[in-house]
Amino acid sequence: MKKPLIGMLVLVLILSTFTVVFAEKGENNGKQKGKNKNFQLGVEALLEDEKDLIEGKNVGLITNPTGVDKDLNSIVDILHEDPDVNLTALYGPEHGVRGSAQAGEYVEYYTDEQTGLPVYSLYGETRKPTPDMLEDVEVLLFDIQDVGTRFYTYIYTMAYAMEAAQENDIPFVVLDRPNPLSGDKVEGPVLEEEYKSFVGNYEIPLRHGMTVGELSKLFNEEFEIGADLTVVEMNKWKRNMYYDDTPLEFVAPSPNMPTTDTALVYPGAALIEGTNVSEGRGTSQPFELIGAPFINSTELAEEMNDLNLPGVTFRAASFTPTFSKHQSVLSNGVEIHVEHEESYQPVETGLHLVKTIHDMYPEDFEFRTDGFFNNLIGNGWVQEAIENGESVEEIQAEWEDELNEFKEVREQYLLYK
Fold first, then answer.
1. Domain of 227?
2. Alpha helical stretches, state H, 238-320
3. pLDDT tens digits for 351-388?
4. Which string of b and e fits 74-106 if b means at least 16 CB within 10 Å?
5. Phi and psi dihedrals of 143, rounded to 5?
């Protein structure tokens, strides 16, 4: 009798173990979309608690495919179908309202097929809404996902629209969204005024550590835009949250920003755009893949891994871009694997990549002759320092004072403590 009893007990223990394991898996998977049900985006807070900002008014909306609620419903459709709101016009940033245009591609005026609304481009010939574009608008909304990096153009579309709103006496409302790189880390040089461009229009660092709502307040006050500004805040977002810590699905903000991994490497890896090395455009992993025909992938991976940079490993990789630099030509280089996002420092990592490739392949590596690297990094001296053999540590030390000054100013505009 003892053997059957022991067998039964063993079976019960096994079944109990499976039950616990599957329960834990369910909980871990349940980072899913049941986690933090009280989390609210700005768009949801607007419709639930602050609808008086738009109710009964003619509304102009600046958005793109990222303008969705937690359930992935488009703000365009939500407002268009709301009987209390009169949505009169749409405005698209780089890549357009529906996100179909590639980087640098001009999107002209057209009529939105789904709503019949006019869509005005805020990229190309007209970056600031004109009075004619705002003729039927009583309040202007901005709802676009940023990626936490100075040279991502949507934040300047927002700033130009704020200027237009101020000039035309129209209230401006920003519906806040998370910074996918978290909101408690600030990195890189502060832009120098003479290097202002559409990939850097204000004196902020490469990784600014702010939400679009916080940036709008900083732009409005520090750079004297003076708009009648309201920020509709998120609920339950914390500064240490990366995008994957939220209950949100990630909607690609642009064709070459497909995942949160892309956003994570972008502040540093995008510096490669200012050189003759491919930043991975034309592949399924832009900015994670870095390479050129003249690079030995194994050697570069070894050099980068020998630096022991925090939170990151480099894998030798080869790829053939379908468009952009080195189109249809086999390129060799590395894939950036972020292993620990908290310790990973994208700007430092990107600078090391640029310097290492520059030092390893002095006969082949080139900075772009149009000065684009300087526009991205926000000054002219970092390129010179790399060419003169200065270390990344020396370069970082040179921008530390200005970065600390920015951090003090930034504190005044943080909405989520």
1. 42-245
2. 260-269, 297-306
3. 999 999 999 999 999 999 999 999 999 999 999 999 99
4. bbbebbbeeeebbbbbbbbbbbbbbbebeeeee
5. -145, 90
Q: Please report the sign of the dihedral spanned by the C-alpha atoms of residue 289, residue 265, residue 148, residue 341.
A: positive
Say which CATH number the domain at 85 has.
Answer: 3.40.50.12170
* Residue corresponding to tokens 């209230």: 171
Give every strand in the sheet of 289-292, ordered side by side: 289-292, 331-338, 312-319
User: Which residues have C-beta within 8 Å of that of residue 182, sequence separation ≥ 6?
Assistant: 209, 239, 240, 241, 242
Cite the beta strand spans of 359-410 per DSSP E. none
Q: Does the model's pTM come out above 0.85? A: yes
Pair (208, 79) in one structural domain: yes
Instruction: Assess if residue 304 is contained within a domain.
Output: yes
Whether 86 maps to a domain, the answer reads yes
Note whether 164 and 273 are same-domain residues. Answer: no
Q: Which letter does DSSP use for residue 158 in this model?
A: H
The string of DSSP codes covering 31-88 is: TSSSS-TT-B-HHHHHHHH-GGGTTTSEEEEEE-TT-B-TT--BHHHHHHH-TT-EEE
Q: Are residues 91 and 230 in the same domain?
A: yes
Tally of domains within the chain: 2
Looking at the structure, do residues 335 and 375 belong to the same domain, yes or no? yes
Together in a domain, 222 and 270: no
Orientation angle between helical segments 154-167 and 212-222, nearest 10 degrees: 50
CA 3 to chain centre: 63
- Tens digits of residue pLDDT in 164-213: 999 999 999 999 999 999 999 999 999 999 999 999 999 999 999 999 99
Cα dihedral sign, 373-261-40-134: positive
- Contact between 134 and 118 under an 8 Å Cβ cutoff? The reply is no
Rounded Cα distance between 394 and 400, Å, is 10
Other Cβ atoms closer than 10 A to 112: 16
**Residues 72 and 157 both lie in one domain:** yes
DSSP state of 251: P
